Amino acid sequence: MTIFTALAIYMTIWWTVLFAVLPLGVTSHAEAGIDLGDGGDPGAPVDPKLKKKFITTSWVSAILFAALWLVMTFHLIHLPALPHNGY
Asked: How far apart are CA 87 and CA 33, in angstroms?
C-alpha cells in the first residue's frame, strides 16, 4: 500500500465517520426552547461542538484504519482476485 493509497483510504474513513459522529449529542433550538424569530431554523444546533467531533472522528478513524491496515498487511481476510482482461 502506497502512502497516497493509505491517505486516500484514511480520508474516506474519516469523512464517513464524521457523518456518523455529527448528529451525536446535538440539541436543536426547538428542543432547547429558544425562539430564533424570523429567518432562523429551529432545527439548527445550539452548540455543535465541532472541535470535539473532529477530534473524536480522527481517533475513531485512526483505529478503524489501523484495523484495516492489519487485515490487509497480514492477509487476515482472503479475498478472491478480481478477474482482468489482460489490460
From this structure: 62
**What single letter denotes the amino acid at residue 28?**
S
**Looking at this protein, which amino acid is placed at residue 57?**
T
DSSP of the chain, one letter per residue?
--HHHHHHHHHHHHHHHHHHHTTTT--BHHHHT----TT--TTSBS---HHHHHHHHHHHHHHHHHHHHHHHHTT-S-PPPPP----
pTM of the model: 0.79
Length of the chain measured in residues: 87
Low-confidence ranges of the chain (pLDDT < 70): 82, 86-87
**Of the candidates 21, 47, 20, which has an alpha carbon nearest to the alpha carbon of residue 32?**
47
